[in-house]
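[Q] Does anyone have a clean structure-token version of this?
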Amino acid sequence: MKEFMDENFLLQTETAIRLYHEYAKEMPIFDYHCHLPSSEIAEDMHYENLSQIWLNGDHYKWRAMRTNAVPEKLITGNGSDIEKFHAWAETVPYTIGNPLYHWTHMELQRYFGITDLLSPKTAQYIYSKTMNIIQQDGFSVKSLLKKSNVNVVCTTDDPIDTLEHHIAIKSDSNFKTKVLPTFRPDKAMAFENTPEFIKYIEKLVIVSGIKITDYDSYLDALKNRHSFFHNLGCRISDHALILPVFSSSDKKNIDKLFQNILNGKTLNQEEITQLKTAVLQEVAKMNSTAGWTMQIHFGAMRNNNSRMYKILGPDTGFDSIADGDVAEPLSRFLDSLDKEDKLPKTIIYSLNPRDNYLIGTMIGNFQSGDTPGKIQFGSGWWFNDQKEGMELQINALANLGLLSRFVGMLTDSRSFLSFPRHEYFRRILCNTIGNWVENGEAPEDYNLLGKMVENISYNNAVNYFGINLD
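[A] Here you go.
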């Protein structure tokens, strides 16, 4: 019987053990998509206790706690930090089989040296021991990034953000981790809600200094912010869609639709799709010109619980997997850019594992130019960032494309203790390749396979995103 979560956790073969410990383990982290608050990095924030690091904003844990009948007061409400921690400790033993059980204990081991299992019996001891460590000088946010061997962090930022915290971080010559913004213009394309969109446009006018009176001036304002982000090191845009969109339209109609929305009119679904398609194409062209990468996330059905949405708002644990047409709109969107030679480097993620083979074949249609793996099948994310989800994504990509060119894992997290998810991925990657070797499906060539593991863990991302690490 194997010991729980020992040094060879998830590594089932001698080949996997060697690949992980000799090649993957010490590679730096390039976290190219996360939701870490740049303000807390700039301030080099110190937390008071583990509850603040673990439970503030973590909708993964919130969903589990609700399922365990924890009162909302002890999840997102006004319960004390220690009450919320004990509520989480009550829940953890029930999470066996869920990645939360692994992540919880990996983080306790890696950051605190604690091998005890979190439960109601150990909760107070663990809370007290971790508090003593957290309150030390060496446990600030910047220290955690250094301890986690993170070389690059790409945050998620709205075009109207001032990026003042990124500017402050950049001015700290003693802090070596690169913290770069990511251009996330979802609200700038939220044509579904006319009043909210108009409010957003008013803010965009202020930060860009461009009066928006029509579609062309709106694009000028977005280009202005795109350049602003570029000058602060941004090389990635990110776009969240329920499903891929594509509906072609001519410039005259797009001008008309945009004018209608500025005039306060509500667009129908087809008009929204036409306008959103046009703007996504324009941002993609900006990316292509600037050498950026475009990330497209789809497959999330958000805010399903309308009662709780009214109470807590978005991103509070009430999202699930969407189902619908993917292949045709995704293909037509990519093709519309490719035929103009304006298709940027693109990473495609679906929250629905049903789409794995669809994406795996789709990316092969548009590989061209000087960038290996120009169109990427993104890693298992959100509900798929667990063992089975990662294995499904890795195997689909390997079967249909070039796994060796994969840019690897991301955290998609709001927690500064989430970086063991990269370790989790690397162990799963090494175990998958190790099984191929043990089964005679891949050669036992550690020069070949070791380099492959190192590249997927870190080097491919460095080369793909083209971010200067000096």
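[Q] Thanks! Anything notable?
[A] The first strand starts at residue 29 and ends at 31.
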